[in-house]
User: Which sequence fits this backbone?
């Protein structure tokens, strides 16, 4: 009960409002284009994806919801992730900001229906993959750390049977889809920067787990690819 109570705090409610409600609304708020259907779709996918995902994960792993609710307040995160995790959060906010500014003063692109349909498929794939990763892995923490108090062990089921960091891959699908759904070449700048940070974080996390988590090295022999199946 203590973990559940500590999860619902004013700080957590504020973070949810900022990152789950306000952030996906930024393209609409900044552009002030209330007839921009693509931005409404972006908002809807973001909100619905979060609600469905957390409902499913919360039912199966309520302790994981509490764990992720401690974001930036962990006692033993890796020193490098204290910088990388917030940096990724900042870039995550920069993406809808860039899209909103581009729409207000542009837009810089006008992608057709085929491209936007592909972007929506990426969004859907991102939600499915991210949810599947959290459903399979109750140690899907918000920061990289060894969760000894929670019995941390290797997870090799679900999407972890074919790639070692499916959560990061799911996030990438969302970031890549956003500029093409919202008609914005400029948004590719924070997307590329985020891509670079995710690759760096994946490598650092993978090296950390190989050194610190029992059985992880054996797992890497079975599942060869860190992030991109068949590539890396």
Assistant:
């Amino acid at each position: 009960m203590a973990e559940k109570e500590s999860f619902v705090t004013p700080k957590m409610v504020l973070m949810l409002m900022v990152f789950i409600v306000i952030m996906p609304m930024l393209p609409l708020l900044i552009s002030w284009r209330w007839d921009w259907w693509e931005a409404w779709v972006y908002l809807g996918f973001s909100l619905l994806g979060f609600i469905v995902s957390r409902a499913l994960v919360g039912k199966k792993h309520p302790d994981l919801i509490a764990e992720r609710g401690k974001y930036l307040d962990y006692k033993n995160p890796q020193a490098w992730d204290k910088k990388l995790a917030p940096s990724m959060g900042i870039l995550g906010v920069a993406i809808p900001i860039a899209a909103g500014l581009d729409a207000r003063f542009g837009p810089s692109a006008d992608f057709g229906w085929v491209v936007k349909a592909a972007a929506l498929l990426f969004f859907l794939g991102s939600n499915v993959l991210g949810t599947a990763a959290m459903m399979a892995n109750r140690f899907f923490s918000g920061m990289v750390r060894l969760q000894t108090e929670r019995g941390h062990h290797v997870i090799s089921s679900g999407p972890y049977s074919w790639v070692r960091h499916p959560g990061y891959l799911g996030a990438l699908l969302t970031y890549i889809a956003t500029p093409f759904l919202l008609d914005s070449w400029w948004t590719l700048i924070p997307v590329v920067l985020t891509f670079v940070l995710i690759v760096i974080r994946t490598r650092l996390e993978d090296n950390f787990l190989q050194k610190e988590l029992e059985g992880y090295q054996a797992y890497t022999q079975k599942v060869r690819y860190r992030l991109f199946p068949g590539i890396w």
